[in-house]
Specification:
By secondary structure, the protein is an alpha/beta fold. The protein folds into three domains: about 90 residues, Arc Repressor Mutant, subunit A, CATH 1.10.10.10; about 240 residues, Aspartate Aminotransferase, domain 2 (3-Layer(aba) Sandwich); about 100 residues, Aspartate Aminotransferase, domain 1, CATH 3.90.1150.10. About 40% of the residues lie in helices and about 10% in strands. The strands form three sheets. Strands 3-9-8-7-6-4-5 form a seven-stranded mixed sheet, with helices on both faces. It is globular and about 85 Å long. The relative contact order is 0.12. Bound molecules: pyridoxal-5'-phosphate.
């Protein structure tokens, strides 16, 4: 049965035009425009009169008028149905006030932008089975959010994942499901810092995070890159000590490279001395292509000063918008109070299905499979760069993550190169754009996961042409 309840907003009760005429006109309009298809049942006069707040006689007068005009017919014992009306009589143009210009989106013909998984590898059938199982057995889990921290079963699955894959011993109670890791980072800022507080941020680093910190009225303390890893900042006065420091220890973003055990220890010690928090943004640690996995920094922490942040954007889908944070036990009430004050952003629908997907092993199969494929793609990107641009770029490869850095000599304008490449449909990022301050290094941050070998080869071909066309 069709739903006509929205007509209530169209009725003008002050108008000189009788309500039954207005109602007739609204229904007629919907039939002519094709919004209501033929052979559909109209709501019974009694229920429509309740929904629209009109008398039953107004509804029946309107239906009778539409019968007279041939738009609907009464069927004995089963109400009124729309009639086929052939080709629409009047072409109804959408009113110009309602049409919005379509946003131009980037062509992704052979995009090799960083950080995107290849959704063509997504196990749609296995995922659909999990969704349908939840819909059959526990349909309420798809729509009801009983706990601000997220679906308990998913939190349980994440705790097992963290124990087996990241060496973290945590309980489901400590896990808070968020709308991606960026939401988790913002929740940490809102919970643990105040306007005017200092926040340690990597430079270069993830730009949206920098924007959020500035937007919340907090002051960044830039953590510079040493020879191979982020330096522990030297703080001159205790008032300028950061309230929290946000790090990507397993795989620096965007430079790559894992923080040494010694530096991790120094950061933890420093957090203790300055009475501050460490936030570990572990955004893509599932992807290591050589050597053994690197344990999460939070696993080294014996003082409960680290909040671990993870995401499903890289291993599963960016569009899913699910991530999580792991809170030290004593901070759980503070995180709960932030959710109560600012609201929960993570959607419920996918959570239980994701838990099924993790518990039945498909999630782990998917990580292993994509890791194997991405490893091949990384090799293709490395050899294409070596073959075509060895005389100009130096490659900084850490056999991990979803992107690779091709460093350029300082005289190259990496932003101009990125723009020219984008104009030809190849999306890469300029290293200098990740810097907030200081003299930026130049280079191209190249993703290798989102596109197949042929696309990567083509992309590198475009980049080569663009770089060689640069007049120095
Ligand atoms: C270092 C880093 N942190 C956080 C994020 C945010 O990821 P999401 O909010 O999609 O989980 C990204 C996204 O690319 C990232 O690169």
């Amino acid at each position: 049965m069709i739903n006509l309840s929205a007509i209530v907003y169209k009725l003008d009760r002050q108008s000189a035009t009788p309500l039954f005429v207005q109602l007739t006109s609204e229904i007629r309009h919907r039939i002519i425009s094709g919004e209501i298809k033929s052979n559909q049942r109209l709501p019974p006069s009694r229920s429509l009169s309740t929904e629209l707040g009109l008398s039953r006689s107004t509804i029946t007068s309107s239906y009778e008028q539409l019968v007279a005009e041939g738009y609907i017919e009464g069927r004995r014992g089963s109400g009124y149905y729309t009639c086929p009306i052939g080709e629409t009589e009047i072409k109804i143009e959408p009113s110009s006030s309602k049409t919005l210009p379509r946003l131009k989106t980037q062509s992704t013909s052979h995009q090799i932008g960083p950080s995107s998984p290849d959704m063509r590898l997504f196990p749609h059938r296995q995922w659909a089975q999990c969704v349908s199982r939840v819909a059959r057995l526990t349909p309420e889990a798809l729509i009801s959010a009983n706990d601000a921290f997220g679906d308990y079963k998913l939190r349980h699955s994440i705790a097992s994942f963290l124990r087996d894959w990241r060496g973290l011993d945590t309980s489901p109670e400590q896990i808070l499901i968020t709308a991606g890791s960026i939401d988790a980072l913002e929740i940490c800022l809102r919970t643990l810092a105040n306007v005017g507080d200092f926040i340690g941020l990597e430079n270069p680093g993830y730009q949206p995070l920098r924007n959020i910190v500035l937007n919340l009225g907090m002051k960044p303390v830039w953590l510079t890159m040493g020879e191979r890893e982020v330096e522990v900042p030297e703080i001159k006065s205790s008032t300028a000590a950061p309230t929290m420091t946000i790090l990507t220890p397993s795989h620096h973003y965007p430079l790559g490279g894992a923080m040494s055990p010694l530096r991790r220890y120094e950061f933890l010690q420093w957090a203790e001395q300055t009475n501050s928090w460490i936030i570990e943004d572990d955004y893509d640690s599932e992807f290591r292509y050589a050597g053994s996995p690197i344990q999460a920094l939070a696993g080294f922490d014996t003082t409960n000063r680290t909040i671990y942040v993870g995401t499903f954007s890289k291993v599963f889908s960016t569009g899913l918008r699910l991530g999580f944070l792991v809170s030290p036990p004593e901070l759980i009430p503070r995180f709960a109070s932030t959710l109560a004050r600012y609201g929960v952003k993570a959607a419920t629908t996918a959570q239980r299905a994701l838990s099924e997907f993790m518990d039945n092993g498909e999630f782990y199969r998917h990580i292993r499979r994509t890791r194997r494929i991405y490893a091949e793609r990384r090799k293709v990107l490395l050899s294409a760069l070596q073959e075509k641009l060895d005389d100009i770029v130096s490659i900084e490869d850490h056999a991990a993550g979803m992107q690779l850095l091709a460093a350029l000599p300082g005289q190259y304008d990496d932003k101009a190169i990125v723009k020219a490449a984008r104009d030809q449909g190849v999306v890469v990022n300029a290293l200098s754009s990740y810097y907030a301050t200081g003299k930026p290094r130049k280079g191209l941050v190249l993703g290798f996961c989102g596109f197949d070998e042929a696309e990567i080869e083509r992309g590198v071909g475009v980049i080569e042409k663009v770089i060689r066309a640069v007049k120095l």
